[in-house]
Write a structure and sequence with these properties.
Shape: globular
Oligomer: single chain
Helix content: 40-55%
Radius of gyration: 19 Å
Strand order of the largest sheet: 1-2-3-4
Number of strands: 4
Distance between the termini: 46 Å
Structural class: alpha+beta
């Protein structure tokens, strides 16, 4: 069946929950997989091989009386032209997950109404995934999906659930969609496009030029860093890309990377151990 955009796996991990009846967690996992994979999220037609590979790992830490708490790891990747390699676009952990769910309760997404926090959180991240994917293929191609994610967030802000509001923390859903839609952080979206379309997608055809372009894309983020050293999107970028960057620059044709390495150490000091692994 054409039309579905996502090839997703949703895992519910309830190992931390002291509960004898595990059936509810299996039902929840099944319902979530169906919710994500059987719906058409865009008006575009996707062929099977074009579907976006992504995963959601919901780790539950508390369950009582239909109320659940935990965290959600969201990952997505996109295929690279002329290869069987998938490049990571998102690797994000949301620690503010809480929702109510009754077994066999239908999960319905309606863009105009807040239905449940579970539906809102998943729908929000699905639109983030769609937006980042589109951005990696065309300049600012993801704007339409980020607008929808913003609408989901706006509706959810009327509720008491955590993670949607400005004052819920410095790194949450509010700040993620705010940054993605803000002109202040435009380098992030530009870099996503250059890195993937002019860099990774050319790697098989012309690896040297592709690597030089990837260097430029990473260097372009330094402008963002100088204005906003603690920019949330810098962390989002390197959480997804750190290992891939090490792999790209540890083999193949050599290109000048001294300046890039200096900037990487400043922009993403958390990954300094990995930057040291780059062999050139």
């Amino acid at each position: 069946m054409e039309g579905q955009e996502l090839e997703s796996q949703v895992v519910v991990n309830a190992d931390l929950v002291d509960q004898t009846n595990r059936q509810i967690f299996e039902t929840l996992e099944q319902a979530l997989n169906e919710f994500v994979n059987s719906r058409t999220w865009t008006s575009n037609s996707f062929l099977k091989q074009e579907r976006i590979k992504c995963s959601f790992v919901l780790t539950l830490t508390a369950y009582n009386n239909n109320s659940f708490e935990g965290n959600l790891q969201v990952q997505s990747q996109r295929p690279i032209y002329e290869s069987n390699y998938d490049s990571p676009l998102l690797n994000y952990l949301d620690n503010d997950i809480s929702f109510t769910y009754q077994e066999y309760q239908p999960l319905i997404y309606n863009p105009a109404v807040f239905q449940s926090n579970l539906v809102s959180v998943l729908s929000f991240y699905i639109h983030i995934i769609l937006g980042l994917d589109a951005d990696s293929f065309s300049q600012n191609g993801g704007s339409i999906y980020f607008e929808q994610a913003q609408k989901i967030a706006n509706l959810a802000q009327q509720t008491s659930f955590k993670g949607w509001k400005q004052n819920d923390g410095i790194r949450n859903r509010f700040w993620l969609i705010d940054a993605l839609r803000s002109n202040t952080f435009k380098e992030y979206r530009q870099a996503l496009y250059t890195y993937h379309r002019a860099g990774m997608d050319q790697m098989i055809l012309d690896p040297k030029t592709a690597k030089e372009t990837i260097v430029q894309a990473i260097e372009s983020l330094y402008g963002l860093y100088t204005r906003r050293p603690n920019a949330f999107l810098l962390q989002v970028f390197f959480d997804a890309k750190s290992q891939e960057i090490v792999d790209i620059f540890s083999g193949g044709p050599s290109v000048g990377i001294n300046s890039m390495l200096t900037h990487l150490r400043r922009m993403a000091p958390f990954f300094n151990a990995q930057w040291k692994e780059i062999k050139y």
